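Example 3.2
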Amino acid sequence: MKNYSEFRIDKWTQNATPDAKIILHGSAVGAISLSELQGLAAPMTANGVVAETPEGPVDSDLVLTYGDVRGSHKLRERIAELHSSDAVKFTADNVIITPGSITANYLALANIAGPGDHVICQYPTFPQLHLVPRYQGAEVSLWKMKAGTDVWDLRMDELEGLIKPNTTAIIINNPNNPVGLILHLPFLQTLVQLVASKHPHITLYSDEVFSPLFHDQSFPSPPNLVSLGHPKTVSVGSMSKSMGLPGIRIGWVISPDLNLLERVMTARDYTTLSVSQLDDGVAVYALSPAILPALIRRNLDICAVSIGMIKEFLERNEGRGVEWVCPPQGAGTAFLRVLENDDGNGNGGKPVDDKDFAGELLKETGVSVVPGGYCFGEEDGDDDLKGFIRISLGAPREKLAEGLQRLEVFLCRRRVGGTKLEE
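Structure, written as C-alpha cells:
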C-alpha cells in the first residue's frame, strides 16, 4: 500500500461534501428506504408468474452472529440465477459476496495481474480498474474511447493492436462510468470470439455495477459478460449503483473460473470474515422476483427524468460553452464538457481547467460536481478529458433542478462561451 497514490475521485468527494449544499457528485441512483422498498412488492412477475413476496427485508428473529463466509447461500444462488443464460448456468459456488464492489474489484484484479503481466483497460472508467493492476506491478495499456460527433466510440481494431504476448486481462465497464456508453451484445460477442480464438489465456473482466441501468432502448439490453460462455470471464456487481442501496455494503464477484475464485477467497480472508447478515438479508429481499423489476423501473425512471432535465439545461445554455458528446446510454451519470469564453487571446472554445472550475463552483454556489479530467484522466498523460464534469443522474429531482440553476448562473457570471443571462 505504500506505493499507492491518492485515489482522486474519492478524495475529491470526501473533501467537497462538508461544504456542499447540493451534492451532484455521486453516481448511485437515489437511495431507497426499507419501507419504500417493501412498498414495491408485486403479486406477480413481469412474465405473469405469481411471485412469492418475502416477509420483509429484515428478520427480527435473526441472531446477529457472523454470516456465511462467502455470503449466504440464498443470496449467492439468486445472483447466480440472474447471471445465467440458456447456454450457461451458474450456481452459488460461482459467486463470492464482498463488502461492496470496490472490494470485489480490488480482490479480483489483484489476483489477475501482477509483475510481468500486461493489462488492457477501457478508458475512461472508474480509476480503480486500471490503477489496481498498475499498483500490483502490471503494465497497463488504456483502450481509449474517442469523443466523436454525438457518440463515444470504442474501436475493436484498436484493441487488437494493444494485445501483447503477456497480456493477462482485458477490463471493460458496462455500462460505463463516467460517459454512459453501453457495449451491446454484438460488441461483446466479437470481444469474446477474439479472445477465445486467438488469446484464450486472457481473462475478460467486466465491471457491471451500473447494470441494468440501460436508458437507450434502441437495442436490446446487453447480457452480463459471464453469461456468454467463455471460461475465463469475470463479472462484478453491486447493490449500490443501479439498485439505489449503497447503505448495504454488498458487492460480488461471479465467474466460471473456480480457480480464480479460490484465489480471491484466499485474499479476502485477509480483509473480510463475512459481510453483515443484515446487509445480506436486505440484498436477498431487493433481488427477489417480487421486488427487483419494480426497483429497476423506479431507478430507470429517476434517471430518465434527470436526463430530460439536463437536456433542457443544455438547450437553454446553447452557445454558452457547456455541452455533452451525447446523452448517457446507461449508468448513473452525465458527462458534460465546459469550454472557455473567447478572451481575445485565442482561448475561445478551449476546455476549462475542470478542477479549478469544480472548485470555484463549489465555493461560490455550494454545488459539488466531479471534475472529469482531474478524477478520471491519466495522472501524467494526455489532457483528453480536460474540461469535463460529471453530474449525478440519481440526485433528488428538486436538488438536481436547483443545482442546474446555480450552475447556469455560475456559467453566466463567468461568461463562458456567451453573453450574461438576466438573473
